[in-house]
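Give me structure tokens for this 441-residue protein.
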Amino acid sequence: MCTEARPRWFFHHRSVRLESFSQWLCGDQLDRLRPFDKPDRRERDIGLAGFLWLGLLVAAYSHMRCLKEIFKETGKLIADGTVLPLKLVTVSAFSQFRQGFPVRCLLRLWAALAEQARQAVDDRHATWRGLHLWAIDGSGLRLPEELWPHFGAHKGCRGDGPAQGHLVLLYDLHARTPVKMRLGPYDKAKERAFAPRLLSGLGAGDLLLIDRGFYSMKLFAYLDRRRLRFVIPMRKNGKPKRLCRWGSDDGLYEIHASKRYWKNTPGVPEAMTVRIVTARRNGFSPRRLVTNLLDRDAFPADEIAAVYHERWHIETFYRELKHVLEVERWHARTLHSFYAELSFMMILATLTRLAMADAAGAGCPPGSLSFGKSLMHVRYALAVSAMLPAEQWPALYAELLVEIRRHRIDVRPNRHFERDRQKRRRQSRARRTANLVGASR
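Here you go.
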């Protein structure tokens, strides 16, 4: 069979040619990555597009035990009676390419896709009172044992537990996409130190929703210098000084820096004027929210309390990352390959959110669609895209959007759960007991 007669998706001289797959990504971004197409160490030339495609496959099928099983399972997907010749790309070839490819280039590609997803969001869902909503939060990740010297274990394990790292993300709450990340040892103090590095690109038109673990006068001073708005719960032992009361749940207060930690620290003021809004919900304890949104006419207290609940979406993303993408099943054993694999996870999550934004269309936020069901269709389209000629890609992507659009989430705006978990468990046990008694009769 001559080379000219082969389909476009076939491997030419041990090189992957994936014209249709490249349409998943920004064409100009791929051109910027071309100088890094040939790392120093490799067994076979799989090409830039082939490496990116295989990296996303590993991220999409991370629930499988090993790379060999992933490649074998993907090869079973057929199109027009042909099977993708993955045998021409060995596991060692991909691993060596991943070991030599610069991680910063993958991060650059991820940032470009996140920006594209942000632009795809409908204008009616893009801001709140002219401010773009962001969230920052951290979560622990179980890591391969080979990375124990770099990250260690959680201090509660007293050095005997599995390797664990602390992942901190900057999350776009409108596009529902991760934007930046930092990973380090499991230490809450370092979690707060990661924040300025993640927030370097934000400014006056942004509102940051922060978890209470980041409460720090040093961080507040940094955000104030950058004219960045924020909302964060007050620490439990906080005792602010009231300056002006605007209502039972709203007013201006003065908070003070701890002399024990911040005395004579450059850039940390002794006191700061903030606004404190008390958020109340049935079944929950009242929560005091500290913010620098001081204009009560432009930013009503009830809306501030309501918009802070949007921060919960970063918590659901961590759940999706761990339980839907199964990020903690790693296939890398070196530090460089591990960061590359984690970057591919973020790129895959962003690609899925980008497809969800395209599928949602005007008048519908991307968050109204199911991420888990969308990822299921993206996995299949990702595997099939390398088998199709480039001219068939638009039809494949249009079919993908139709399938994603079918999986809407049942929104229940007044639904909530009380914090008293034991009460819910007692009620659940009572219902099960009643059902068993009824069934026995």
